[in-house]
Amino acid sequence: MRVGLLAVIPALVLGVACADAVPAYRPSVTGSATQVQLAAKTSALDWKPCADTPDDERLACARLTVPVDWADPAGDTMELAVVRRVPKDAGASKGALVYLPAGPGSSGVDTLASDGLINKMFSQAVQENFELISIDPRGTQRSSGVTCSARLAGELDTPDSAKRFDDMLAANAELGADCRNRTGPVFDHLDSTNTARDIELLRTELDEDKLSFYGLSYGTVYGQMYAELFGSRIRAMVLDANVDHSVSAEQATVSAVRAGQRSFDEFVAWCAEDKTCALRGDDVRETVAQLFDRAERGELADPDDPTRRLTENDVASAIIAPLTKPAVQETADAIARLAGRSAKPRGETGAVDGGASEPGVPETVPVPIAIYCADFAMDVPSYADYARIHARAAATAPDTRVSPHTPPWLCLNWPAETTNPQHRLDAPDAPPIVVLNSRFDASTPHEGAANVAEQLASGVLVTYEGMGHGAANRTVCVTNVLDEYYLNLAAPRDGTSCPAAKLG
């Protein structure tokens, strides 16, 4: 079953849960402060207008020089892209609030340049009182982004036999070697503890005693590692749509599939009640089952390209991806269109990008899974193990069957070491940290957030009782909770719940 890594990358916002069966491990804290002090001797921020938005006076950009290898802070260096967005009321600033980008692979520089994205994450009160800061983390976009052959990235197969499993191992190794050659030395120093140290160096250059944070999706891993290494330097931290960095490959896969199923269940309930649903009156579960069955037999054509056959992963992406917004109308339209009942989608729905074999795809592409592979050891030693995990995941989610977010074949036989493997969090120096999650997030399951909050001695779990990947500012309730925390350092009660907004 060919899906191609290019089809997986857009969906790679990882959701995991369950915190047992992982080795005890903690990133080395010893020497971290000394490492940053040594690196600070060669780093300085020179703020200038941003190249992509030179006329936006609210924004300024700089380059931060950091060690390629934090184990050798006086060794080779690289530069990270940094962006600053001044508060609307500069005189009332409560300091710097650092946005930790999602992904892995998202650009903090691009995010802070977007009013729409800023307004989704931060209330007007927060925007008026904080200087917003972000980076393109190492290995992403303007910060020595991981670059790989588009052809190799587009040719990886989801294995359905022992032979294809072995072929996939060889293909992963070939792709990883190509990525290393094209990317350079940073390829072997991409884990989130390195990014945490980069951020600590940024703190010293900003001349801030403590930082406030908002981490989204994979940015929550960056935040968790910063809390472990530099917890005393946190003023306030919100981790939203949490990735649980304490789980095995099997647990991650099953949990991600279960999250998609739960979100789909909410969609089915909405469709049964809302007159605008394109599938109202249909047996939605049966329609989806037929789509998956046709895809498994190789009989489901892409509505945009009838010569192309869609996979189970394509069907799952078409259904689940809109639910992360959440855009239930788009999911309904996507199902109707795949079933041949609708010619015009309401939004961007349908099949996943076909990958590097299609015309117009460049020679190289970014492959940010290299960051994930530095943080997550995917322990799937054989095809028998892979098949067992796949079967267990499918049994967990009878309707959605697979997840586009955590294929268990990612990182197998990858040439770079997993230098920050999964472990339970240990952040005794951190202040109260708000761990926020939607109850029915299709990407990062709620139970993963509960695990993160439990592992953090100071973790406070806040639940938005609705759908969507990322819960900040979805309702007045959530906004009020976060404003009180950011502005007044009034942490909410652990277990705080905010009602869901109406879908549609």
UniProtKB/TrEMBL annotation:
The keyword Nucleotide-binding does not apply. Residues 410-498 form the Peptidase S33 tripeptidyl aminopeptidase-like C-terminal domain. The keyword Transmembrane helix does not apply. Keywords: Hydrolase, Signal. Gene3D superfamilies: alpha/beta hydrolase. Belongs to the peptidase S33 family. This is TAP-like protein. It comes from Tamaricihabitans halophyticus.
